[in-house]
Amino acid sequence: VKEAFWSQVLGAPPGVFLEVGGRGSNAALNRDRLRAGWSYIAFDVLPGENVDLVGDAHRLSDYVAPNSVDVIFADQVLEHLMAPWQFIVEANRVLKPGGLLCLVTPSSCPLHAEPWDFYRFSDHSMAVLFNQGTGFEIVDRSIAVPVVITPQVVVAYAERMQYAPAFMLTSVIARKTGETSAQWQAYDRDCAFGLYPRERG
Questions:
Q1: 117-158 residue pLDDT tens
Q2: Is-contact 53 77, C-beta < 8 A?
Q3: 44-60 confidence digits (pLDDT tens)
Q4: What is the 3-state secondary structure (H, E, C) of 41-108?
Q5: What is the pTM of this model?
């Protein structure tokens, strides 16, 4: 899915490209990847290398004008958001009609960047997050990188886990089809313990 996304982006007329979770050298490669004419904005919860705009992705429209962005890209970010559904609503608000959003997030993955590691997603999750209610249609979605899960302690049904299908990554490309009607009011940053880790490559 990520390759298909980049093919669409690089073949499209230049516009505004917003990378959420844009801190670090890996994200800086995406800035360089875009051809002339694109306006690249790196948004992150912390300042650092490559970051243009610091803020809370749950309140993206407080920092980025509504209907002003052509493309949103977030790689390994969704699992670190306390309320990822709220981010989806905010992404809809800042995207132009017809704008694209691409997410890559773990399905099976060790805990990381603790204590801000909240969720794992299957490809079935994407139909719940991207639909008419949130103002999107799914263009493509996939699971990738097969893995074997082997428990260290044998409990009921654990002996079968290594034979069950499991994947490391879930990806989605979604297109904004309309304004969102969804709202969630329960997001409270104070519910999380500690601070988001500063280290990020």
A1: 899 998 888 988 999 889 999 999 999 888 888 888 878 878
A2: no
A3: 999 999 999 999 999 99
A4: EEEECCCCCCCCEECCHHHHHHCCCCCCEEEEEEECCHHHCCCHHHHHHHHHHHEEEEEEEEEEEECC
A5: 0.88
